[in-house]
Structure to design on (1001 residues):
């Protein structure tokens, strides 16, 4: 069965996504169990694939037995197995934890909701395992369409956000497809390994370079690289809580992964730096994005929006690692894909729990949270500290590896950006933590206005309740995610040495 | 000789893990306090059990795991580390006893958080002390920032929150500079395991690189050492409860900064390299200026804790200056001053806290005649003041003797005068308090009833530390061999001078 593994990760998700709405029509609750079983299965397959790859090296799978370049090929190497496992594991934790929130938010539409979730995950894992440029586009569109639909479920404001997301996302997909078409004209193949071989053997042409630029813009949009991030804050803020908790940690990561794939397996070594300055563009835009995202996050009142801009900043961090186009840079980028998925998963899940228990989403409304939801707030704190990058949390080691990779190329500015970003993260996250823990802090400390104070009063936090902690089905995934941000920091060398270094 | 041993790791782990226990026992204050004291004693026992080995030259080391390829999380009980670790864990025992008296006396809120954060902070400080390489040092240095933050904002007043923000801004920035330097060294493939002659010998001749590294690394550690102009977080942090000011802002945190200066200058750069580049001069001049300026500022402050804070700023720079002079005599003096100032300043803060608990007075001008009400407390205060001024035979006389001799040794007589001026100014801002307390009573001033001494839990620790300021001046090896450790470090590192 091991050689079937590449297909066993995405295919069950896609197949079951068709079944889920039917099951949902029959029994609403069964849709959840069906989805969770499928996700758990895919997670286990990803884990198995990773173990297999570490032991025996990369696996390939030829769809329908057709040889590439005619047929579609799936390749699971270290990197693909790693990213797939992270995406699925975080998704598993989030889907378990958001069950009751989804029941509340998706009344009567749970079958549809879980179908979309499975479709989204199928698309994302498909993007991860495929070794075919056009097939990547197909999966990109599958996951994006599922994403638009999920955001759309967020009511009227969600509709507008979804529309914007749809326009920009489709644009991104179109750009990517255009780029692939240019490549196809130049090479006559869509298989990644073939493309790499042909491009390595031939001179760079303008058409190929133009194709690379289109692909860069397309994937840049998907990974919300500044200035192509405009869709992200609204999509995260106005979508249902169960949705943004799911898409925030994983969706943009897969865009970043696809970008990394272009560097690793499509374009020859150095092509995207020497022939087309895409690496440089990623570094420059990344550096701008890191600072811009953090600065924008500081100004937000809605905690989800704050975290969304924080994502913009953190994704830019990954972009820098990719753009450095060295093994060290790739290792840093991949490590941060994992770390950020875990940290953002923790933070968004904690925010979801708070919203579920109290209805609060604005920063001023979080006053006194530490007393009422001690475990949730503690998990949020761990996630926040990891984002700031205090050792030995995972976030620290992201900074560490990226700084080393930047210094290899004497990019002192990047070192400065990395260090300053951590101070900026501290600024916007401690603003939240102060609120959560320091009950007596007066309203005007950070310039909040009366209207928002009113919001705080209206929120359903009663002043004299003992605990409002959510039930174990939310707490356990949350605590596990939070703990993993510490454990994967402490034991980061195991990941780097056994997975990331052989893979890059 | 290095021996593999779990003891250094245990010494750090006991307070860090014990903190969870302390936090969990919030509903049973008596049990919680017993656990706190037990933790402090256990930690002290673990640290002291490593002392004989260190003084005999058998250094215990624990390598825990790999933090980054090729760089381990490693703890090592070398002489310099043991000096700081012993001081911190010993004073933690006394501070815990004192805290119980203080926190109960004032009926402070959130005491579980307080004791837990306290244990975490001490654990991080021990990690700083025993770190065997730069990355491990950075790790605990940053954790120390994080763990002390809840203590700074303990009161949760506007002032405390502002102080907390300032504290984070300064110390996180310092930590980032330190991280920048550490990353750079790692990228160059230099093993930063602390070594007595420094580890940057391969950079000899590359002055530009050495200077840049010096700015990052030394710049990072002097933030916590509160060298001007990076000092302003320290007076602000005095808003914390007095036991915090006593142990953390007189011993653990600021001494972690000063100790970091020792580690960075002596154990990373090495005496020879710094002497070649002349980088030490910048630091020495900055520290000398801080000694004088901070003392002058201390004279101006009426608030007792603030005055003590500026005094701390001044005395920390004594140590920084002593390290920057790069000679064995000055280094011995610096390490002795680290110990001596720790025990002396903690006495002064203990006294300030005792006065606060009994009378709720915080300003020097309100303390006329208090010596008659609280003779033991003010007696200890007087002992500590004499020590701060460097009067023989107190411990800070001994350290200043070595520091001064080191200045002469380095042919930098100007710095000798800085030390003398610092001593005179210390007398200037502390003696009037003693004089007011014992010999002055203003006619318009009436005590609203008999105040008397604070509880025994507070008086006993401050008496012990006050007496130790005297005893360690005469017999500095009693019982923790501080003098032997200091000379051991100095002879090992500055021997080439």
């Amino acid at each position: 069965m091991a050689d079937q593994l590449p297909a066993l990760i995405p295919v069950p998700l896609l197949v079951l996504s068709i079944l889920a709405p039917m099951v949902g029509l029959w029994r609403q609750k069964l849709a959840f169990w069906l989805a969770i079983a499928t996700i758990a299965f895919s997670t286990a397959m990803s884990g198995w694939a990773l173990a297999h790859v570490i032991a025996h090296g990369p696996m390939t799978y030829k769809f329908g037995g057709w040889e590439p370049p005619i047929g579609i090929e799936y390749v699971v190497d270290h990197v693909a197995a790693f990213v797939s496992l992270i995406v699925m594991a975080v998704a598993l934790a989030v889907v378990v934890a958001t069950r009751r929130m989804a029941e509340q938010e998706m009344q009567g539409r749970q079958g549809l909701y879980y179908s979309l979730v499975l479709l989204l995950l199928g698309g994302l894992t498909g993007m991860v395992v495929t070794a075919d440029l056009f097939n990547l586009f197909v999966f990109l569109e599958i996951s994006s369409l599922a994403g638009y639909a999920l955001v759309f479920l967020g009511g009227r404001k969600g509709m507008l956000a979804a529309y914007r997301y749809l326009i920009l996302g489709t644009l991104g997909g179109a750009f990517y497809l255009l780029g692939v078409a240019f490549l196809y004209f130049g090479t006559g193949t869509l298989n990644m390994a073939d493309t790499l071989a042909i491009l390595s053997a031939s001179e760079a042409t303008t058409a190929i370079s133009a194709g690379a630029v289109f692909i860069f813009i397309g994937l840049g949009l998907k990974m919300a690289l500044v200035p192509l991030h405009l869709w992200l804050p609204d999509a995260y803020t106005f979508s249902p809580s169960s949705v943004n908790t799911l898409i925030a940690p994983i969706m943009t990561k897969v865009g970043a992964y696809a970008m990394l794939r272009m560097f690793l397996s499509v374009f020859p070594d150095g092509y995207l730096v020497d022939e087309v300055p895409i690496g440089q563009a990623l570094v420059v835009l990344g550096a701008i994005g890191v600072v811009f995202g953090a600065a924008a996050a500081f100004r937000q009142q809605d905690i989800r929006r704050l975290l969304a801009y924080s994502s913009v900043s953190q994704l830019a961090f990954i972009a820098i690692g990719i753009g450095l186009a060295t093994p060290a840079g790739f290792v840093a980028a991949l490590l941060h894909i994992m770390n950020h998925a875990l940290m953002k998963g923790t933070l968004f899940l904690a925010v979801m729990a708070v919203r579920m228990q109290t209805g609060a989403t604005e920063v001023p409304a979080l006053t006194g949270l530490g007393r009422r939801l001690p475990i949730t707030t503690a998990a949020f704190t761990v996630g926040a500290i990891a984002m700031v990058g205090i050792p030995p949390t995972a976030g620290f080691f992201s900074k560490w590896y990226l700084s080393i990779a930047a210094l290899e190329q004497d990019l002192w500015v990047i070192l400065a950006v990395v260090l300053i970003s951590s101070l900026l993260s501290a600024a916007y996250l401690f603003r939240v933590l102060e609120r959560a823990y320091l009950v007596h802090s007066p309203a005007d400390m950070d310039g909040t206005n009366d209207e928002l104070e009113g919001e705080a009063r209206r929120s359903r936090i009663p002043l004299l309740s003992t605990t409002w902690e959510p039930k174990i089905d939310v707490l356990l995934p949350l605590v596990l995610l939070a703990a993993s941000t510490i454990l994967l920091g402490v034991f980061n060398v195991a990941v780097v040495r056994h997975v990331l270094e052989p893979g890059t | 000789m290095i021996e593999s041993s779990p003891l250094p790791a245990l010494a750090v782990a006991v307070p860090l893990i014990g903190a969870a226990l302390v936090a969990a026992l919030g509903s049973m204050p008596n049990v919680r306090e017993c656990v706190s004291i037990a933790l402090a004693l256990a930690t002290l026992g673990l640290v002291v059990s490593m002392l004989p080995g260190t003084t005999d030259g058998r250094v215990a080391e624990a390598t825990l795991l790999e933090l980054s390829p090729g760089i381990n999380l490693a703890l090592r009980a070398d002489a310099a580390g043991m000096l700081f670790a012993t001081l911190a864990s010993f004073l933690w025992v006394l501070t815990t006893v004192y805290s119980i008296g203080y926190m109960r006396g004032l009926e402070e809120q959130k005491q579980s958080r307080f004791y837990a954060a306290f244990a975490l902070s001490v654990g991080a400080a021990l990690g700083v002390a025993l770190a065997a390489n730069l990355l491990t040092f950075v790790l605990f240095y940053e954790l120390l920032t994080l763990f002390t933050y809840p203590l700074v904002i303990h009161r949760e007043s506007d002032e405390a929150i502002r102080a907390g923000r300032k504290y984070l801004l300064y110390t996180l920035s310092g930590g980032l500079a330190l991280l920048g330097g550490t990353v750079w060294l790692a990228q160059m493939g230099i093993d930063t395991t602390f070594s007595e002659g420094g580890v940057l010998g391969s950079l000899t001749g590359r002055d530009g690189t050495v200077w840049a590294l010096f700015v990052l690394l030394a710049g990072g550690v002097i933030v916590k050492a509160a060298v001007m102009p990076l000092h302003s977080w320290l007076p602000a942090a005095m808003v914390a409860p007095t036991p915090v000011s006593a142990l953390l802002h007189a011993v653990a945190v600021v001494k972690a900064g000063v100790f970091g200066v020792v580690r960075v200058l002596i154990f990373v750069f090495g005496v020879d390299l710094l002497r070649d580049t002349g980088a030490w001069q910048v630091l020495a001049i900055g520290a000398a200026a801080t000694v004088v300026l901070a003392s002058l500022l201390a004279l101006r402050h009426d608030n007792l804790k603030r005055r003590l804070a500026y005094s701390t700023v001044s005395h920390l720079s004594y140590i920084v200056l002593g390290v920057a002079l790069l000679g064995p005599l000055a280094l011995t003096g610096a390490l002795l001053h680290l110990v001596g100032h720790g025990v002396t300043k903690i006495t002064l803060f203990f006294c300030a806290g005792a006065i606060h608990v009994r009378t709720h007075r915080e300003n020097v001008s309100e303390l006329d005649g208090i010596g008659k009400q609280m003779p033991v407390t003010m007696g200890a205060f007087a002992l500590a003041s004499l020590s701060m001024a460097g009067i023989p035979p107190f411990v800070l006389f001994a350290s200043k003797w070595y520091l001064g001799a080191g200045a002469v040794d380095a042919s930098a007589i100007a710095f000798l005068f800085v030390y003398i001026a610092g001593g005179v100014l210390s007398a200037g801002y502390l003696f009037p308090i003693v004089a007011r307390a014992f010999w002055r009573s203003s006619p318009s001033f009436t005590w609203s009833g008999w105040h008397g001494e604070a509880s025994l839990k507070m008086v006993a620790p401050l008496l012990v530390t006050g007496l130790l300021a005297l005893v360690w001046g005469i017999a500095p090896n009693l019982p923790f061999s501080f003098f032997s450790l200091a000379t051991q470090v100095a002879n090992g590192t500055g021997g080439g001078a």
